[in-house]
Amino acid sequence: ETGVTQTPRHLVMGMTNKKSLKCEQHLGHNAMYWYKQSAKKPLELMFVYSLEERVENNSVPSRFSPECPNSSHLFLHLHTLQPEDSALYLCASSQTYRREGTYEQYFGPGTRLTVT
Amino acid sequence: KQEVTQIPAALSVPEGENLVLNCSFTDSAIYNLQWFRQDPGKGLTSLLLIQSSQREQTSGRLNASLDKSSGRSTLYIAASQPGDSATYLCAVRGSGGGADGLTFGKGTHLIIQP
């Protein structure tokens, strides 16, 4: 595997289910991100982890719970979601994390989530 | 708060044409600007990154320009091909953006007709 991988690629879940999204980066990067892409809206940053510590939580509802057990893996735990949470969830990584940084982010293919 | 607008929202042109995609941003205090490509149902691929001190960047048939003072960037695609069909996203990194400083536009959906 190379780059950034995400599993599953598609997920359908009911509002009472609990599921997890997984992201793995094979680039040796130190920062990882979760983004949400809803139809007809710009990409929205959800969480940022740098060296396995959460450095940013962008006002995300508590029904989304991230976990970064090491610098290569990132999870997004989902519970009691709403239909409006249906979206494409993208994971990204970068060599480092600094607000003013000129670093490049590498994105995974995303998980298409549908909440019924 | 930084806002990024991309015009047009959608574009369909015959193969072989040169075309220009536009991106504008409201806060000129940016560190850099990045153009991405997104294929249907897939992640983002970085195309070009322009630092705030630069005026343009080129990669193959792609050329991106940046006019920071006027808050504008253009992505020029020369001799378009059907394989260029995708959504093109513009993102700026600056102090007015999200937690990581990145603010995205909604994208331009491009279709190149064979």
Summarize the structure in short.
The complex is a heterodimer of chains A (116) and B (114). Chain A has no helices and 11 strands. Chain A has 116 residues and is mostly beta strands.
Task: Produce the secondary structure layout.
The complex is a heterodimer of chains A (116) and B (114).
Chain A: E1 4-7, E2 10-13, E3 18-25, E4 31-37, E5 44-50, E6 53-57, E7 64-70, E8 73-79, E9 87-94, E10 106-107, E11 111-115
Parallel strand pairs in A: 2-11
Antiparallel strand pairs in A: 1-3, 3-8, 4-5, 4-9, 5-6, 7-8, 9-10, 9-11
Chain B: E1 4-7, E2 10-14, E3 19-25, E4 30-38, E5 44-51, E6 56-59, E7 62-67, E8 72-77, E9 86-94, E10 102-104, E11 108-113
Parallel strand pairs in B: 2-11
Antiparallel strand pairs in B: 1-3, 3-8, 4-5, 4-9, 6-7, 7-8, 9-10, 9-11
Structural notes for this entry:
The complex is a heterodimer of chains A (116) and B (114). Chain A has no helices and eleven strands. Chain A is an all-beta fold and 116 residues long. In chain A, strands 2, 4, 5, 6, 9, 10 and 11 form a seven-stranded mixed β-sheet that branches. Chain A starts with a strand and ends with a strand. The mean pLDDT of chain A is 90. Chain B is mostly beta strands. Chain B has no helices and eleven strands. In chain B, the strands form two sheets. In chain B, strands 2, 4, 5, 9, 10 and 11 form a six-stranded mixed β-sheet that branches. In chain B, strands 1-3-8-7-6 form a five-stranded antiparallel β-sheet, with no helix packed on it. Chain A binds chain B through residues 4, 6, 33, 40-45, 48, 55-58, 88, 90, 92, 97, 99-102, 104-110, 112, and chain B through 4, 31-32, 34, 36, 41-46, 49, 51, 89, 91, 93, 95, 98-107.
